[in-house]
Amino acid sequence: MASLCEPKNIVICDGSQQEYDALCQKMIASGTFIPLKRPGSFLCRSDPADVARCEDCTFICSEKEEDAGPTNHWQDPKEMERRLRGLFKGCMRGRTLYVIPFSMGPLTSDISHIGVEITDSPYVVCNMRMMTRMGSKVLEQLGEEGKFIPCIHSVGAPLKEGKKDVPWPCNVKNRAIVHFPEKRTIWSFGSGYGGNALLGKKCFALRIASVMARDQGWFAEHMLILGLTNPKGKKIYIAAAFPSACGKTNLAMLQPSLPGWKVETVGDDIAWMRFGKDGRLYAINPETGMFGVAPGTSKESNPHAMESISQNTIFTNTALTDDGDVWWEGMTKEPPKHLVSWLGEEWTPASGKKAAHPNARFTAPISQCPVVDPAYDDPKGVPISAILFGGRRSSVMPLVCEAFSWRHGTFFGASVSSETTAASESEVGKLRHDPFAMLPFCGYHMGDYFLHWLKMGEREGAQLPKIYAVNWFRKDRSGKFLWPGFGENSRVLKWIFERVEGSGNAVETPLGYLPKSLDINGLNISPQTIEELFYEDREGLRREVEWLKEYFKLFGKRLPEGIRSELSALEKRLG
Ligand code: GTP
Ligand code: SPV
Ligand code: MN
Asked: Ligand 2, residues 242, 244, 270: which to mutate, most atoms within 8 A of Cβ?
């Protein structure tokens, strides 16, 4: 790679605090990092054209096109390799090539896997140090013969001798985030942002790992993992898949409004799950940090997130206050009178523009979360009792609904749709299908992925989690959210807990089991609003079925019979 990329020098990262601090100093000097008033924290402004995952430049280059499936961008692997070799030729001139050995999951866990990312971005190195277990200990574990996933990243902006660098080098025009599922390698060019550049995250832990999981009989999912304890001290673990910027980080560390209940965080974005010898499904969080959405995060909505980011945090694309702190939309009711926006421009409330980018993010160690679960680092993982699927649905979908069976729950996953968010560069607010919240992250044919889920449920002796669909985002006629969300979501978690325990009441509906009653003690909500949250919109549901039928046609013969028959069963129940 060195002879291809021609870097000025090479650094093998040891993962130490000194190394991290030195890189931060270097980035302050180059204008990439602005030190903040918060201890150990920095603000970074990206290039305004490189602000989120880019789905149109993300490719799955399987040997055969049909194996990437209809939901992925495919290109011939040989042609792509040729293109990449061209792009990477000399791409690191004038820059340092960093070698980042990292482990996804605890080093001693048999669910974990190792990767090595090569990058020319010190920003990536610092983020990877928070997001993964990184450095010398990983190299030791690898030894001479150890297996790892090669991940190659460049911002694609060679630096001429004597020329001053820009704060956020990138090469937007030539961006390509490329996965070779058979070779299990990742090449990413041109972007420095998030999932495009921190290759352990979406590229490895989801796109490549989903292929490994299919082959080896486990799950790599876009899911948070939380521990839920009732007032009597009984604890269960829950995993939940919501599309990007649809509430995983917030649910993972929620402060329950219900007295006596407790939520603890194992993970906020990705879950790797395997059956244990006892037949239960065990989950680990392969990451060690959070790359979380800043806008909307406040002391009221998510006090635990606010505490997690009180120090040692990298903020990307938030606004800067006059006293050297960060701000974003939704952080306080009243915006400050003056800010410097994410674009580096003077900002006042009269500007009529957003001060922070809608996909502004914080990178913080999960160990700083005040409610981090004691088992978050446990190599065995935690046993999962319930799996939730959800999305942003302004109508039709109820607040919560329980599946009749694993197969029905798999159908819930397959039928997730959600309004798009600023986490990806495409249009925002457009309702689209996003099966299992994995549309941008499944490394193979989505129809085969459905089949994998169905097959895993047939495993002998499996003690399968119950499956739920949830929707915090239903709106009234005036466009206001019906449900207060955040800490109040504990009321839904309570019902799920009781169902798992066998004590919760439910009514059967065409869609699945709905709560007979929800605990709304102490919540200021009208009975009509509750009714609307659960309103069975038959017309809407019939339209939903038609829309799904159309969508599933995409998968042709690779749509599993189990999904097809669940859809017809729903259609029949709707009458
Ligand atoms: P990714 O990191 O992109 O995968 O996102 P995520 O699924 O972790 O989403 P996150 O929890 O960061 O939430 C994204 C946005 O949704 C934030 O602006 C939140 O304030 C908002 N949000 C989260 N939970 C709720 C909720 O229960 N109700 C409402 N109305 N908004 C919510
Ligand atoms: C997402 O988009 O789902 C994220 C952010 O979690 S990124 O790391 O950029 O993929
Ligand atoms: Mn995510």
From this structure: 244
Residue type for position 307 = E
Confidence (pTM): 0.98
Q: Beta-carbon neighbour count of residue 10 at 10 Å? A: 14
CA of 360 to the centre of ligand 2 (A): 11
97 strand-pairing partners: 10
Would residue 61 show up in a list of annotated catalytic residues for this protein?
Answer: no
Q: Does ligand 2 come within 6 angstroms of the Cβ of 269? A: yes
Mean pLDDT per 10-residue section of the chain, whose length is 575 residues: 98 98 97 98 98 98 98 98 98 98 95 97 98 98 95 98 94 98 98 98 98 98 99 98 98 98 98 97 98 98 98 98 98 98 98 97 98 97 98 98 98 98 95 98 98 97 98 97 98 98 96 97 96 97 98 98 98 97
Helical axes 561-574 vs 538-552, angle rounded to 10°:
160
Closest Cα to atom 23 of ligand 1: 247
- What is the sign of the dihedral through the CA atoms of 295, 300, 306 and 310? positive
Q: Whose CA is nearest to atom 27 of ligand 1?
A: 485
User: Which ligand 2 atom is nearest residue 222's CA?
Assistant: 3
Nearest to 534 by CA among 389, 419, 400: 400
Which ligand has the minimum distance to the alpha carbon of residue 247?
1
Strand partners, 470: 390, 400
Angle between helix axes 446-456 and 561-574 (nearest 10 degrees) is 80
